[in-house]
Each structure stands twice: as structure tokens, then as C-alpha cells.
Design brief:
With 396 residues, the protein is of the alpha/beta class. Helix content is 36%, strand content 17%.
């Protein structure tokens, strides 16, 4: 671990320039899901309790370097005050005279929210002058936005090099969970990777094959691999032009000793709709006019057996068309098995990605996983083995 935590920083009397992710959904001016705000509250409260003065930097939407009233962070102030249980002041810019005055006059016990960093075109270009302007507003830099750590922006990468820097509580939790899953995991390690397309997860699969003992492939991706193995998959969602690539991945897995698990039985239907007529069939019996929408019960038993022998699990993507019943059965059953093993202390389970979070929440398993990341792109890039600029800057 080459980065510092909040506990290693002297925050008393300091302005703590804190990069957060509060890019939350809003309908008619009302925040409809405050999860991201709640998750940064421990960092802000720690800074306040340590005698520091939190100055929050964040982006909101994609304004493209222009000021847009509907993307102003000012509308989040009431929600932030409820989450932090502290007064939140607002500055109409994230650099310049007004922002500097607001940061300088910020009182102990108060929080300052700066305007949307992406109102400046230089933010996404990692503009050095913009980062320097932001640095004037703080004495210490704290990055608590792992979800933005895969982008080299002024507020995530450039700024971290200009002030004494540390990770916030959420960033710390993300990094520690990821380190436990792929950095120095207890073995055997199993990865579950699902989703629609092999093409979007090539780098992910290639990296995981070298690091995990078992790789469970599900969803539409599995259909491509089944086609590569010569099975008829009817009219199932698949990338038929990726068959050679799938064969290359399976050959690489064999050479590295990674065990790939594909469905051994299938759930098929003629219509992609909830409660459509369906049947469970052997892998080699998919009708020409049917589509594979889920893995069957024998496949789930095989996955459960592997999970029972595993010490670490990384999960990204569903095993079937989890959005519609009954094609969520394999995802739900495997997730609940992983949750039970985690609850009993037999498994460390780390999951992430948009569909993954939705699927695990729907199954009722999410609460028992060791850690669930809401970081999306950053989580995937970390799984792909890429260097995350926002993390690398903290390690300087």
C-alpha cells in the first residue's frame, strides 16, 4: 500500500480539499438515490471530527466545459446537509477569487461545496493551471472518488501531485477490498464474469485468466464460447465474429491452469419476455428457433461446488437475463450461495459493475458480500490490470 489514509494526516485547522463522487440521479430537483452521498459521509465526518474543514470538489453530468444551470451542484446542498449533519456552504466556482474567499472563511464544523469541476473544459484535459487554481483552496488533498480514479483529470490526478495527499474512507475501502481480491488473495480464487458481449471484456478476461483459478462465464458471453466449442445456440445473443477470440481465450486458460466453467445445461425460450414459455435442456439440445436466456440447475450446482472450494470471489456481470423472471434463477442461486459462504466466513467476495450491483440487490445477496463497488468503469479497469491515474497519483 503506497498511499496514505486519513488517519496518517494532520487535519486539525487544515482545509481538506476532498474529491468526491456525488454524481447522483435527480428528477425535478429531487435526489432520487443518495447512495453515493451516503457513502462519502464517513470521510466528511472524520475530517470535521479531526478539526479539519472539508472543501468538496466534484463533477456532475457532462456539461462539456460549459456552465449549465441544470448541472449545478448547488441543488445538492440540502441532501448533503442531511447526510453530513452539518451546514454546507456553496461557492459558484471551483477556482478563482470567490472560491478562494469561501475556502479561506470556512468555519470549523462547516463544509464547503465547490461548483461542478467540469464547468471548466480543462478539467477533463488534466490542465495544470486549473489544478494549481484548485490547490490554492486547500492545505491537504483527499481523494474519496474511486469511481473517477480511472480518469487523469485535474481534480483527480493533477491536484494530487500538488498537495500532501491521502485516500478518503470510501477510496480506502475500495482499494483494500480490491487488494484482497486480486492483489494478495487467499486461494483458490474464482471470478464470475457475465454480460452480453465478449468484445467489451476481452482485456478483463485475459487479465483474470492469469490471476484466478476458476473463471465462470455467463450471460450472452457464454453463448459465444459455446458456439466456439461447436454447440448449436439457436437464435441466442452471441458475437459470432468473436468465436476465434473465444477459442484463443480458452487455449490461454488451459496453458495457465485456469479452469473455465461454461453452462452444462441451458434454459431456453422463444420469446424474450417475463414468464415466457421455457424449458431446461441439455447443452447440445438447443432448438434452432430458441434462445438461451439462462444457465440451468446443473450448471448452478457446478458453480456452487466451485464456490464452496474457493477462498476468494470476484464477481462482474449476471449469469443470464436477470432483468426478467424466470431467467434470473442462475444468477440468484449462485449469488445466494456466495452470500452464504461469505456469511459463514469461508469466502471473501468482492463485486462491482452496474448490472452486477442491480443483480445482487435483486437476489437479496448484496448485503452479505464482503464488498460491493459502485465504481463502474474504475472497477472494471482495475480488474483489467490497468493503472488507475487517480490512485497512482496518491502513491507518489
Amino acid at each position: 500500500m503506497g498511499w496514505k489514509t486519513l488517519d496518517e494526516m494532520d487535519l486539525s485547522g487544515k482545509r481538506v480539499l476532498t474529491r468526491v463522487d456525488i454524481n447522483v440521479p435527480i428528477v425535478d430537483g429531487v435526489v432520487t438515490d443518495a447512495t453515493r452521498i451516503r457513502r462519502i459521509a464517513p470521510t466528511v465526518k472524520h475530517i470535521l471530527e479531526a478539526g479539519g474543514r472539508p472543501v468538496l470538489l466534484a463533477h456532475f453530468g457532462r456539461p462539456g466545459g460549459e456552465r449549465r444551470a441544470n448541472l449545478s451542484l448547488e441543488q445538492l446542498v440540502p441532501t448533503l446537509e442531511r447526510a453530513f449533519e452539518a451546514p454546507v456552504a456553496f461557492a459558484a466556482d471551483c477556482v478563482g477569487t470567490e472560491a478562494e474567499l469561501a475556502a479561506e472563511t470556512l468555519q470549523p464544523g462547516q463544509v464547503l461545496l465547490l461548483e461542478n469541476t467540469r464547468f471548466h473544459a480543462g478539467e477533463t484535459k488534466n490542465d495544470a493551471d486549473l489544478a494549481a487554481g484548485m490547490a490554492k483552496l486547500g492545505d491537504v488533498y483527499c481523494n474519496d472518488a474511486f469511481s473517477a480514479a480511472h480518469r487523469a483529470h485535474s481534480s483527480t490526478e493533477g491536484l494530487a501531485r500538488l498537495l500532501p495527499a491521502c485516500a478518503g474512507r470510501l477510496m480506502q475501502a475500495e482499494l483494500e477490498a480490491l487488494e484482497s481480491a486480486l492483489g494478495k488473495p487467499n486461494r483458490p480464487v474464482t471470478a464470475v464474469v457475465g454480460g452480453a458481449k465478449v468484445s467489451t471484456k476481452l482485456e478483463l478476461l485475459s487479465n483474470l485468466i492469469e490471476k484466478v483459478d476458476n473463471l465462470v462465464i455467463g450471460g450472452g458471453m457464454a453463448n459465444t464460447f459455446l458456439a466456439a466449442k461447436g454447440y448449436d445456440i439457436g437464435v441466442s445473443l452471441a458475437e459470432r465474429l468473436m468465436v476465434d477470440t473465444a477459442n484463443e481465450i480458452m487455449a490461454k486458460a488451459e496453458s495457465t491452469g485456469c479452469n473455465i466453467l461454461l453452462p452444462t445445461d441451458i434454459v431456453v425460450a422463444r420469446k424474450f419476455e417475463a414468464h415466457a414459455d421455457h424449458e431446461i435442456l441439455p447443452l447440445d439440445a438447443c432448438p434452432d428457433d430458441a434462445m438461451i436466456l439462462d444457465a440451468g440447475p446443473a450448471s448452478v450446482e457446478a458453480i456452487a461446488a466451485v464456490l464452496s472450494e474457493s477462498k476468494t470471489l470476484i464477481w462482474n456481470g449476471p449469469l443470464g437475463a436477470f432483468e426478467i423472471e424466470p431467467f434470473d434463477a442462475a444468477t440468484n442461486a449462485a449469488a445466494l450461495k456466495a452470500a452464504a459462504l461469505t456469511r459463514s466466513g469461508q469466502l471473501v467476495s468482492v463485486a462491482g459493475g452496474g448490472d452486477t450491483v442491480s443483480a445482487l440487490n435483486a437476489s437479496g445477496a448484496a448485503g452479505d458480500f464482503s464488498y460491493i463497488s459502485t465504481a463502474g468503469g474504475a472497477f472494471l479497469e482495475w480488474m483489467e490490470g490497468k493503472v488507475l491515474p487517480g490512485v497512482a497519483a496518491l502513491e507518489q
